[in-house]
Amino acid sequence: MSESVVFLGDGLSADARWEERLSELEVRTLGVCGDTTDEVIGRLDAVIEIDPGAVVLQVGTNDVGWNRSDEYIVRNIETILCTLRKELRGTRMIVQSVPPRELEYAPVIRSVNRHLRQFAPTVKARYLDLWPVLAAPDGSLGAEWSTDRLHLTEAGYVVWLGELRPMLAESLEHPLLAPAVSRNPA
């Protein structure tokens, strides 16, 4: 296992310039503009091959835009997390909430995020809720963080990084403990 940090997800991760923002770390960005959870599932072998010290997952907003159900999105993100946990037992994982976007999508995004918050601990992943810092009072993406209620401005990325950096630093300081294995006496 390397001590690299892989950022996995869609265009929000791809456009974040994580290598620059976290220059003190060995960062690999595997975010692809336009990707849905289906495409991320198709790219998991690339993550497993890297065998990183940490994976930071951010995906789901494009699924929302394609009007996929909250159940579909959650099931796919659970598949991503379960596959990574099975193949990368010692890798720390952070799953980030689907960020707010246009107001009409707020109910499905809130539902997805509620499920992710509950599911993350079952695969020893940490959950980072970006909703409180990015959402406007009405549940859309705050105008100060975006010009189109979807893509983040520089100010939006600065706010995101401010939330992510402490959790990532704490995660990297502590090794993920392997689950206890019960051994039957011979």
UniProtKB/TrEMBL annotation:
GO terms for molecular function: phosphatidylcholine lysophospholipase activity. It comes from the Bacteria. Residues 16-157 form the SGNH hydrolase-type esterase domain. InterPro entries: Ester_Hydrolysis_Enzymes, SGNH_hydro, SGNH_hydro_sf. It comes from Cryobacterium arcticum. Transmembrane segments: none annotated. This is SGNH hydrolase-type esterase domain-containing protein. Pfam families: Lipase_GDSL_2.
